[in-house]
Amino acid sequence: MHPVLLRALLVFAAVVSAAAQPLPKPASPESVPYSRRIWQSADGLPEDFAQSLAQTPDGYLWIGTSGGLVRFDGIRFTVFNPQNEPAFHDESIYSLLTSADGTLWAGTEGGGLIRYRAGSFRAFGPSEGLTNGFVRVVFEDKDRNLWVGTDDGLFRMRGESLVRVDGRGGVHPVAVHSICQDRQGRLLVGGGGLLILDGGKPAYYTSGESLADSSIRTIRQTSDGALWIGTISGLRRFDHGIAGDPFATPKIIRDTNVDFLAESRRGALWIGTYGQGLMRYAAGRFVRFIAPSSLPHNNVLSIFEDAEDDIWVGTQGGLMRMSPSAATTITTADGIPQSINTIYRDPQGPLLVAALNGRLFQIAHQTLEPFRLPSDLRALPIRNAFRDHAGALWLGTDGQGVVRLDKNGEARYTMKQGLVNDFVRAFCEDGDGNIWIGTDGGLSRWRNRTFQNFTGKDGLAYASIRDLLVDLDGSLWVATDGGLSHWRDGAFAAEPRLARFLGEKIWALYQDADGGLWIGTHGAGLFLFKNGQLAQLRIQRILPSDKIHFLSESPDGNLWMSGPAGIASASRAGLEELAHDPSHKLAVRVYSTSDGLSTNQMNGGVQPAGTTAADGGVWCPSTKGVVHVETDAPFLVSAPPVLIEQVVADGRAVPLSGEIRTGPGAGKIEVHYTAIRLRSPERTRFKYWMEGFDPEWTDAGQRRIAYYTNLPTGNYRFHVVAYELNDPRHATEQVLALRWLPHFYETHLFLAVCLFAAGSAAWGGYRLHVRNLGKRFAAVLEERNRLAREMHDTLIQGCVGVSALLEAASSAQEVSPKISTELLNRARNEVRATVDEARLAVWNLRRGSASGEDMVSAISQLAQRIGLESGIPVRFESSGSASPLPTEAEQSLLMLIREALHNALRHAGPHELSVGLTFVRRKLQVEIRDNGCGFDPSVIDSPNGPHYGLIGMRERVSKLGGDFRIASTPGQGTTVKLTIPIARLAGLEGGAEVLRKS
């Protein structure tokens, strides 16, 4: 049979068998001084199976459930499982251990061993030597050796690996479920039998009774030296440890699956069973707790005592906390909750309790027992009770007036007998023996067996009365739903200082021995009227509620208050100090469900809404019974350490390590913090301050997250303080350094780069401006030079020709008028040509590009015209494929050729001229020859004499990007060679257009 199936059948058989065996009688919830609180999946647990429990040094409670590992701070559950932690290969956590160094070890059901240290998880499995992943127990011995028990083998941790111990060296193989080390240092390993390792020869024992008896579930040695072994079939105790076969010792509990054993610091042994609930063994006596009255489920899986002396019980139906209780709730013998209206301490008898349903009880033997009334009064709806100085018992009713009982019998008084209203809320007696009765509709004074009534027309603040008090001076104070009235010297006295209470609901009054009048309101908190001064105590954020139903003082000097959110007490002296100094740190003890209250809802509005007993105990009416608080019960006053759990920046979790560096982002920061108080986390309060941003501390109350939006970049220190209401003077603080990094455009480097870039841009702009000015100046100079060249090549050359013709005509007039006339005609034609050339020079840039043939034709015509004008033949030749030139280049080329020809005619005296054009490889080569006198080319650059023609020709060629050369020898003629790149001249047209626009 499969081992798992076998174990299941054994468990089932034991449970069935146990059902027929006598067990200790279950204890009633009221008989055990523990308050209980239960958490289930609806409260935040991933699943209800709470299989194992442990607590780490930081205070967190760790819960191993079938749905993952859970961390609990008293308020919030944080779940770790395969969905959010890669180290988890199975979500069922069966065993937990916190080792001496604070490391948490978790054994899973199939996923091996997990270690939690310094905020991170690590898994141990086959690669570390663990051959079975079902880890049932993790144990640390006195020498801090770690042992791991699985379904198939016992392992010992060595370094970062696991070594199997059983199944070798004479050690019997075991399926381990429990490990314990006894006082002799022996290791006791329980599973399908008992293995004892003591350094020598190992011993192994099994039961001859049954497999269920051999199946050991838990082993524990208590502080008295007794050793306990729980099996599926019962529980054994060994007063002096194990000597010999343990299964030979009789069981003290039979036929019960004992699944877990734990000893509390107070010496009680807690016994968890599978199917029979929980048992506590102390002073030789068993007390049993069962579901549903005391447990969420009768299958108990784990038990643990935390640092606050709380007992935690993990069951199949959820997790339960059992805390030593300072308060108990008393109900009737049948345990049915009773909503209580008033509680009166009868000077001549027990506490009298009026229930909301009108029944009158007395407290006896920690139960509510019916109070004996005459048969004709038993049906009356009793609201409250009061005994006067003569011993008469007054009973107030709900709509039936009042009843007076004395030794002479009973008397009833209603509105028919003069009572102001039949709904009675309060009684008191003044020094003259007058009985004052407060009702829903006014105040009645009973004197000499007659009633005198008072309402609003008589000076009463309001007709609905909540409480009555006769002070030390014998005057009467009347608390109403519309203010506070003061009766003295036979009338309601005007009290200007009490005008503050006009329209205020006053529900409770108390006067201390020093004459201070304490006033509890229903919505405005607590007031103190003393020595003619009225002070409101600003403790609304400290008390559980600002609605006060009851005020009284215990013999230890504490003022007690109850309300719809619980019970609170504070030192009267501390409260008076707070009345004078609002900054005084007041210690307040708040009692709630974590202290044993069945409910926080205390009733009030009808008096007395509570009382203090002679022994100092406080009794208050609640919706589930009479609450009794032991005023001298110890409680924790030291504040728990405050922890910062997580920082979330712009929706992303930030690792917590040293200084937090985050950003850049939108400036949204969440700081999650906590202070671990497992028993009463509702008493813990927080305040925080972001140093460098917040002007002052923020009172967060019970909120455990600080939110910041639009936090500027910079360095900050986040302070969070936790304190207990019991004693706010002692607090704990945690400080977190936070650096919110800026966006790159917010850094000093970026600012410096921007400044540098701006400076560089300004300097670049300045340089560009200067360069543009230079270009414009150069353009102006170029334009001037161009105009000079144009004037020289057109107007000046034309004028020179005209001048020569006119001089010749003048000289020939006397010799031959005909020749003179011909010369004049030539001069006239020359003037026209000069004008045309000048006009062409001015408007040539507006002309479109010509074809190559047009340019060749223009040069040919130029050569022909100059030959005719000079009478000297000018030969023209062209070779290669003609390429077109831009208009300006063509015009410049024509001017160059014309200038060269004119220079030759003017200075060389040639007999023949030639012009040659050669188009080759996108170049134009021009060669102009004459056979004149020649000259020395070095005179071109000489400062002596004007040589504007040659200089202009050189500038034109340079402008065209070409090469200008002159070869000449005196007496041998001159050759002018021009080489112009046609490809480069393609951009000349665009440049000419720009120049033309400028």
Please write out the topology.
Blueprint: H1 3-18, E1 34-39, E2 50-55, E3 61-65, E4 68-72, E5 77-80, E6 93-98, E7 104-108, E8 113-117, E9 120-124, E10 135-140, E11 146-150, E12 153-158, E13 161-164, E14 178-181, E15 187-190, E16 194-197, E17 203-205, H2 211-214, E18 216-221, E19 227-231, E20 234-238, E21 251-254, E22 258-263, E23 269-273, E24 278-282, E25 285-289, E26 300-305, E27 311-315, E28 318-324, E29 327-330, E30 340-345, E31 351-355, E32 360-364, E33 367-370, E34 382-387, E35 393-397, E36 402-406, E37 409-413, E38 424-429, E39 435-439, E40 442-447, E41 450-454, E42 465-470, E43 476-480, E44 483-488, E45 491-493, E46 506-511, E47 517-521, E48 526-530, E49 533-537, E50 550-553, E51 558-563, E52 566-571, H3 572-580, E53 588-591, E54 611-612, E55 618-622, E56 625-629, E57 642-649, E58 652-654, E59 660-662, E60 669-675, E61 684-691, E62 698-701, E63 705-708, E64 714-724, E65 727-740, H4 748-812, H5 817-843, H6 852-870, E66 874-879, H7 887-908, E67 913-920, E68 923-930, H8 948-959, E69 963-968, E70 974-981, H9 988-997
Helix pairs in contact: 4-5, 4-7, 4-8, 6-7, 7-8
Q: How would you characterize this protein structure?
A:
- Among the domains are: 3-324, YVTN repeat-like/Quinoprotein amine dehydrogenase (Methylamine Dehydrogenase, Chain H); 642-743, Immunoglobulin-like, CATH 2.60.40; 747-846; 851-987, 2-Layer Sandwich (Heat Shock Protein 90), CATH 3.30.565.10.
- It has 9 helices and 70 strands.
- It has a 5-stranded mixed beta sheet with strand order 59-65-64-61-62, with no helix packed on it.
- Helix 4 (748-812) crosses helix 7, helix 4 (748-812) packs across helix 8 and helix 6 packs parallel to helix 7.
- The relative contact order is 0.05.
- Residues 1-21, 845-849 and 987-998 have low confidence and may be disordered.
